[in-house]
TrEMBL record:
InterPro entries xref list: AAA+_ATPase, ABC1_TM_dom, ABC1_TM_sf, ABC_transporter-like_ATP-bd, ABC_transporter-like_CS, ABC_transporter_C-like, P-loop_NTPase
UniProt-recorded name of the protein: ATP binding cassette subfamily C member 11
Region spans: Disordered: 496-518
UniProt keyword annotation of Repeat present: yes
Domain ABC transporter: 495-728, 1137-1333
Family in the record: Belongs to the ABC transporter superfamily. ABCC family. Conjugate transporter (TC 3.A.1.208) subfamily.
Topology relative to the membrane: Multi-pass membrane protein
Organism from which the protein derives: Bos taurus (Bovine)
Highest rank taxon of the organism: Eukaryota
Amino acid sequence: MTRRRMYWVPRSSGGLVNLGLDVDDDMVSGLSYKTITVEDSPWRQQVREPEAPGRGKYDAAWKTMIPFRPKPKFPEPQPLDDAGLFSYLTLSWLNPLMVRGLRRSLDEDNIPQLSVHDAADKNAKRLRLLWEEEVSRHGIDKASVLRVMLRFQRTRLIFDTIVSCCFSITSVLGPILLMPKILEYAKNPSRDVAYGVGLCLALFFTECLKSLSMCSCWVINQRTGVRFRAAVFSFAFEKLMQFKSLTHITVGEAIGFFTTDVNCLYEGVYYGPLAVLTFLLLISCSITSCLVLGPIALIAMLCYLLFLPLQAFLTRKLVESQKHTSEVSDQRIRMTSVLTSIKLIKMYTWEKPFTKVIKDLRKKETKLLEKCGLIQSLTTVILFLAPSLSAVLLFLTHVGLRLKLTISVAFTTVATLGPMRLSVFLTPFAVKGLTNSKSAADRFKKFFLQESPVIYVKELEDPRKPVVLEEATLSWRKTCPGIINGALELEKNRYTPEGMTRAQPPLSGLEPEAQGDTRGPELRKINLVLSKGTMLGVCGNTGSGKSSLLSAILGQMHLLEGSVGVHGSLAYVPQQAWIIKGSVRENILMGSQYDEAWYLQVLHCCSLNHDLEILPFGDMTEIGERGLNLSGGQKQRISLARAVYSDRELYLLDDPLSAVDAHVGKHIFEECFKKVLRRKTVILVTHQLQYLEFCDQIILFEDGKICEKGIHSELIQKRGRYAQLIQKMHEKATQGVLQGVAKTEEDLQLEGQAQTACQEELLSENAVLENQLSQKEKMEEGSLKWTVYHHYIQAGGGYLICSMIFLLMVMLAFFPVFSFWWLSYWLGQGSGNNSSQESNWTTADPGDILDNPQLPFYQLVFGLSGLLAILLGICLSLVFTKVMGKASTALHNKLFNKVSHCPMCFFDTTPTGRLLNCFAGDMDELDQFLPIMIEQSVLLVLAVIIILLIISFMSPYILLMGVVILSACLIYFRMFKKAINVFKRLKNYSCSPLFSHILTTLQGLSSIHVYGKTEEFINEFKKLTDVQNNYLLMFMSSTRWVALRLELMTNLVTLVVALFLVFGLSSVPHSYKAMAFSLVLQLASNFQASVRIGSEAEACLTAVERILQYMKMCVPEAPLHIEGASCPRGWPQHGEITFQDYQMKYRDNTPIVLNGLSLTIHSQEVVGIVGRTGSGKSSLGVALFRLVEPAGGRILIDGVDICSLSLEDLRSKFSVIPQDPVLLSGTIRFNLDPFHRCTDEQIWDALKRTFLNKTIVLIDEATASLDLEMDILIQHVIRESFRGCTVLIIAHRVTTILNCDRILVMGNGKVVEFDKPEVLQRKPGSTFAALLAIASSSMS
């Protein structure tokens, strides 16, 4: 039982505010800052279930702290939950999965599910409680998401700090304690070999402990990040589900929040603790270097301290640049989303203009990306040059101050400062994570604090009155101006079309946003009392407030005055049908229990039986994305069937008959509304005025007010506005009777049954023959093929350009090592006398370098090496950024070109979400992540190779052993990389279902609430989130699993070099040994980092793989432009259309839909086209526009075969008004003229007359959803504006095509009848005559 708890918290500005928490048996089930009720549900009870006795908050954590846990008798589904401390920190729990990946038997079916401790359910509950506590402590205004983030990870942050301390200590322990002793032992070997070997083993142990500590930091952070990501995702989605309609946030903003802001918060938790590690490293390195070299070592620290602010500055600049870039990227992605309307784009031949717009946006985006990439590349260069530059500055200062410098002290200092490079590497991640999370936290807080609409709908106690509105004034905005002045004043202007009687404002002012706050309330002073079992008919002109009345009853608006009350359960049929991905039956049942008898009755009354007969799997046939394989009418009838099957008490029907023809509409009204729903309370909003006389009560809306109310006969007698509308309808209906023959009702019924008069046609008639329209996305297996690298290199400019960049990288990697080699050579020369140089190959002291006469020369070369490295790094950053930007842009443009030129069958079978994932997610990987991964991995590999070459001079055996060890490491990596690739690909492919679910939810919020499916959608979201987070955690864990083991194996090279020094097996100078020894300490971390980052770069290249996969799938349609083939000048002059034995099928595996079609449409003739579902009406338009190529025969227009023309020449000569209108995001002017081809005067002329200057015009159900007056107006515009054109009109309202010159009746892809309407009306047994008679009788 849900009850209200008054929960008052202080506001920082003073006063109190009620949180409005709904409590189910001590469970907080909702959160808002007004009052809101969230339904009781099992899930709420589950998440609020109290902890079992004896089980505390940290029980699972304490079990993990046990060093070694025996394998339990009943293991957990996730092996991580049974891991002890050693297994947890070393990721040994992942061993079985990595072995399974090695055997190529790892797939989504045998990967364990996410741990319950990491799941969205548990963590969202915890985050919600923390947020509520935060608000109760500090008030709404001062509540901080960042504080909540800290509290969420407080305990784990403490453990992370402890492990970071361990890493900082072990990082300097080897260089400061063990390295000098080993060098001293190598210089003066003693007989105590055990002591020397012990030093080597101790160094090996400390290096392994350092590797384990670093890995442990990442392990803790990545699991914390995944938990917080799951919590934020679910908490935000639950908050979103509280809204019944999105009036406070756009769909784009909501999607942006889930795609961008949540990841920013995740990065803040994942990378934020690295700031602590950086600080601890700075302290430990500063202390130890000062102990070795003295206070002068602070020079190096100062240098690093300069690097860190520089890194922080560059990172902040990067974040700012990325913010500007994301704005342009959003514009590009928004424009790319027009692929959802690709049919319209092809018909309007907008491919080239849209491609140009998108390419221009991409060009602008690339310039900003190059700026971001340059900053990222410079941070990478600083990372690699920081150790050598700080050493150059330090030792030049040291020598300049005439302080003594020995070989052991110099390279011990170098080794001590080595770990500081990691701090330079980690600083950008920490700064970027914290900076982005702060801005995301601000938006997140705003999202949390967004007030839900007040639940103004009262629950009435009297069941005899299901709906009561008293003096109700409602608006879509929270406040409305009391006085509305100027041209927008609704009270005065009534329904006068703007632009026809007033001065024309600038077209830029037509943006809805510009006028949104100046309009009055949508509903004013509404008084309505509805009795139980009443059918209320609601009519009025378009925009008069009919749909707003239903929204008001649903509680979606803001109540400004009066009251709204409802009794009983609701069912709702929206004007735009909402379809979920699944079968027809799943869409109708919506999770309800299947009752066969009731289900069959619902199918019959909603006229769905015939549609199910033509589907190969009946009601189990899958409906494609957004119902892509259904017509608008079929989607509407499925939506109606869903409402009827739900068996509610009050039905809100928003123009449910707009997309069906008269026969189907009459069947639904008779069988569904008057029979099945006869005891229900029904509010029917309709433009089909012929049904209003059968309603128990009628109200007429004008300008948001009820201007007439009563029963049909009363309103007719009043001779008011309603009577005028009915009179116009009768005048139109009698046209057919006056022109045609008189038939009895019995004859009409018999003919209607015999002919089965037309219903609406499938939008894509090809789609019904396949159950799975959209097949599961194919996932590649194994390592990336060479062709992926080849195509990426070619996109970047070719092998020559890439070779030049590689050469620059080799030089950049060489200079730091050269600086250290020069330092060793300089120190080896000592005082510069001959004796010291001769003794250089012995253990004797070479002398003081301050006494060397060539000291200035050594200093000059040492300093120039650092300066040249800086210049080379800047040069590399500039060139590398340009090439990477070129590569990603080339792939983007090539993909868009190929996709935009694909035939319609490609878009029918490929969900748009997958394509947008390529243009958004995959391109983001190529733009943001891949360049830095490639640059870092290549430089690290080169550094490893150079270090190997340096130590190989000590002894060829060291080179041999080093090569053997590293080769074994590479083989090990190649073996286990298979599992990493599987996890990465699964993570990438898990994004599409998650975001499709979010989009589906946003589009159907009102229906979800009405049918009580909030919890089902939340649970499905959590399930999809857990799947994605599981693959993310597995990918990161597997990468760390391999990296740790590689680093431990590479530490063997350090042990080998140390043993060679101890046993004196190398005859190189002592200074060279010290240099090599200091460098080899960096080998293990460099090698594992190069392999790990390289694997991440390869994982990012799977985005290229997916792009290439779609390019391969894109088989182009006929070319837009054919070289050498020109369209005849002035064609088509007359517009005569001839079909000659024309045959067409949508795809190779589908049957013929137009079969041997032969007919001629004369010049300037207006032809009306009717026919039943699947008859081929819309296929005629598809054939004319060559959206599908013919399977036989041909179409001639003015004697020219349309297949001999290019698609651009053909389609640009036609005009089309589609059944489903498409509005692009932007101004009205942008929608009328997206490419600025017309002047303002021409646009205003189009607004007045809807004028289209083309010879051939196709109109497909253009007036199905309009009221009768608007229909009459548009029919008049068609007759006037298209005079002199050949016009083809596909219509449901048969009365709208009575004025056509001829009528074409289609059936089974063939011509059934084709003649003048008056001839067909007099023809015995005419299908058209029967259809017209039924339509006329239903309207009269």
